[in-house]
Amino acid sequence: MFGAETFFAVGFFFLMFFVPESPRWLVKYGQDDRALEIMTRVGGEQFARREVADIRDTLAKEEIARVRYSDLWEPKLLKIIVLGVFLAVFQQWCGINVIFNYAQEVFSAAGYGVSSMMFNIVITGVVNLVATFVAIFTVDRFGRRGLMLIGFGGLTVIYAVLGTGYYLESRGLHMLILVILAIACYAMSLAPITWVLISEIFPNRIRGAAMAVAVFSLWVGCTALTFSFPFLNRSLGSYGTFWLFDVICAVGFFIVWAKLPETKGKSLEQIERELVG
How far is CA 123 from CA 136, 162, 175, 179, in A? Predict the structure, then answer.
């Protein structure tokens, strides 16, 4: 089992040799020509010159104001930190990792035996993989904000139906289909797009510190979810637990709708100006 993963690890290692260096890193260390070359491949010569000029301006400002963690409490920045932490924590508390971590309990409550459960777990893994590839081709078509709304909105509907199914003690294929739809919805939206957003929404001068806070919050949320599910399942039942996740996803939908701007097609400098003002 562990040996099979070697293939992907080795492939990842060699493919990294084809990944270009970050233009911001290149400009920071005086390699503007290489940065222009990379950005030209992305959007043409005029786009490259404009972006590199923006990067120079931003880096010049960063030299003047070095960030400290205490700076994250500055009111203009704090609202962006809160948004990033929200995205990170709600990505976990949308509830999908419960299905992955406690698949046996989830499928057992839906009436499946041991042999069927193992087959269902394989199916959910395949769906997760395929849907993640779908996100690669839709992220620029629907935008980051659009996919986050699809993710939270889709899970809100699916969890409402799934919770009702558990409440009515439904059994069989339709429950598996609902679980598969939830995984597909998550894998093509919240799972990959959250990571894209927390790398884009923070202003340059606090990006490193802010991302550290957001990623730390994400894994704290993951740990809290994993350890709390058995208690929630015993206290609320399967139906109550999924209805709870339904409410969380509904809240997530409205916060994204109200607070998250679209970041597609915008430079990091443009996003910073839009969020900070």
Answer: 21, 18, 13, 10
Fold of 73-276: Growth Hormone; Chain: A; (1.20.1250)
Give the contacts of 25 (CB within 8 A, at least 6 positions apart).
none
Same fold, 14-64 and 73-276: no
Structure tokens at 243: 């209805």
272 burial type by CB count under 10 A (0-12 exposed, 13-18 middle, 19+ buried):
buried
Domain boundaries, the chain: 14-64, 73-276
pLDDT of the chain, 277 residues: tens digit per residue: 567 778 888 888 988 988 888 888 898 888 988 989 998 988 888 888 888 888 888 777 665 456 666 667 777 788 889 999 999 999 999 988 888 776 666 666 656 655 565 666 777 788 888 888 888 888 888 899 999 999 999 999 999 999 999 898 887 778 888 888 999 999 999 999 999 999 888 887 778 788 999 999 999 999 999 899 889 888 998 889 999 999 999 999 999 999 898 888 877 777 877 777 6
The CATH number of the structural domain formed by 14-64 is: 1.10.286.90
Helix (H) or strand (E) holding 94: none
Token pair for 203: 């202003």
Sign of CA dihedral 42, 47, 50, 54: negative
